[in-house]
Amino acid sequence: MNANKPVHDDKTVHDNKPVHRDKTVHYERRGRLALIRLDRTGTSNAIDPPTLEALGAAYHRADNDDAVAVVLHAEGPDFSVGLDPKSFLPTLQARTYSADGPGRINPFGTSTRLSKPLVVAVQGTVGAMAHELMLAADVRVAADGTRFSQGEVSRGTTPAGGGALRMAAEAGWGNAMRWLLTGESWGTDEAVRLGLVQEVVPLGDQLPRAIEIAEKIAANPPLAVRATLELGRRAREAHAQQVYADLIPTLYRLLDTADFAERLAALKEGRDPVYTGR
Fold first, then answer.
1. Percent of the chain, pLDDT > 90?
2. Pfam families, per this entry (predicted)?
C-alpha cells in the first residue's frame, strides 16, 4: 500500500475513534456529528496534495455514514495558510491537479459536493485555498483576531476552488473585488460585514461554538435538513456550474504566462516582479 495515499476503510465509519489519514486529516464521529480536523501544524496547516486527497476522502466518509452534520476545524494557531506551493508545483506543472477522485468528495464543492450541512471553525490565518474550504461551508465561526485572504491574483494566478464566485455571491460584487483584486487580507470585523462568517467568538471558543451549532442542526429531522440545504444551494449556485468547469483550465492558462514566470524569477532573485500583461 502506498503510504502517501489516504486509507479508505468503511468498516470504521460508525466508530467514535479518530481516523488518521496521512497523519494530517483526522476523522471522528461524535454522536450525530462527524468532525474533520486538519493537522499539519508544522507548516501552519498548509495543504499539500496528500492532505487535499485525505480531506476529500474524509468528506466522502462523512457523506456516507449516518452523521447528520459535519464540522471542519484545524489543530494549532492557524486554520491553514492555504496551498503548500512547493509540494503542489510538480502537480500543477504536470497539469494533473484535481480535487476529485474515487472515494472522494471535492472539498470545494465545485464538482461533487458534501450533501450534509458543514459548519467550519477557523482561527489564525485563513489563506487562499483554505479560505475556499471555508467558503464552501454552510455556517462559519471565526475566532477573534482571525485574518482572511484570497490573494491568488498577487501571485499571478486565480482562485481555482470557487473563491471568487462565492465571495461575489455572498459579499456583493464590489465588496468581493475590493479584496480579490488587491490580494490584501482582512480581519473578522470585515468578514462579518461581508457575511463571510456568521459569528466571531473569543479565541479557543470557535470549535465548541461550531459544534454547538452543528448539534442544533443535527437535532432536526435529517431528511428535512438535507432537502432544505439542497434547495438553497441549487437556487444560489445553479448558474455557477458552468463557471466551475472553467476554474482549472483558467488556472493552467495563467501558469503558462510570462507574468507567472516573472513572479517565480523575482522570488528566486529576491527582487520585485515587473509584470507586462503577457
1. 83
2. ECH_1
